[in-house]
Amino acid sequence: MNAFILLLCEAPFCCQFVEFANTVAEKVDRLRSWQKAVFYCGMAVVPIVISLTLTTLLGNAIAFATGVLYGLSALGKKGDAISYARIQQQKQQADEEKLTDTLEGEL
After folding, report:
1. Could you tell me which of 1, 76, 71 has the C-alpha nearest to residue 38?
2. What pLDDT is stored for residue 16 in this prediction?
3. Of 76, 72, 66, which is closest to residue 28 (Cα–Cα)?
4. Neighbouring residues of 66: CB distance < 8 A, sequence distance ≥ 6
5. DSSP single-letter state for residue 13
6. CA neighbor of 3 nearest in space, from 73, 61, 68
7. Buried b (16+ CB within 10 A) or exposed e, 92-105
8. For 61, which of 18, 39, 94, 107 is 20 to 30 Å away at the CA?
9. How far is it, in rounded angstroms, from Cα 107 to Cα 101?
10. Residue 50 contacts by C-beta under 8 Å, 6 or more apart in sequence?
């Protein structure tokens, strides 16, 4: 059942003879990445909670992995160290300027 739902949501062209496949795919496409992540991970965890066996774990691993990938995409791109250091340096310079302005104002 989970595999059919995952296939229906992610690859509706494989279910082209199912009448409601395109409407389901359109509704899923409107969801945000974090919502898809919660849906797919929740969809994978429910059978594991019901029956914890090796086949259940292996069978739901792909749905869980899909949820993890959507979750990572919801977090966004990680910035590189150079741009992070530049932002920190700009913040530090702004703080130093504020400090010197307040010290000059007191004198």
Report:
1. 71
2. 77
3. 66
4. 6, 10, 40
5. G
6. 61
7. eeeeeeeeeeeeee
8. 18
9. 10
10. 56
- Hey, what are 64's tokens? 């869980």
pLDDT of residue 106: 62
Cα–Cα distance list, 37 to 11, 42, 48, 57, 100 (Å): 16, 8, 17, 18, 48
CA nearest 65: which of 55, 54, 53, 57? 57
Predicted TM-score (pTM) of this structure:
0.63
Those residues with Cβ within 8 angstroms of residue 18's Cβ, 6 or more apart along the chain or in another chain: 8
105 pLDDT exceeds 80?
Answer: no
Give the pair of three-digit tokens for residue 13: 């062209």
Share of residues in the chain with pLDDT > 90 (%): 7
Mark out the alpha helices in the chain (DSSP H runs). Answer: 2-10, 21-29, 33-50, 54-75, 81-106
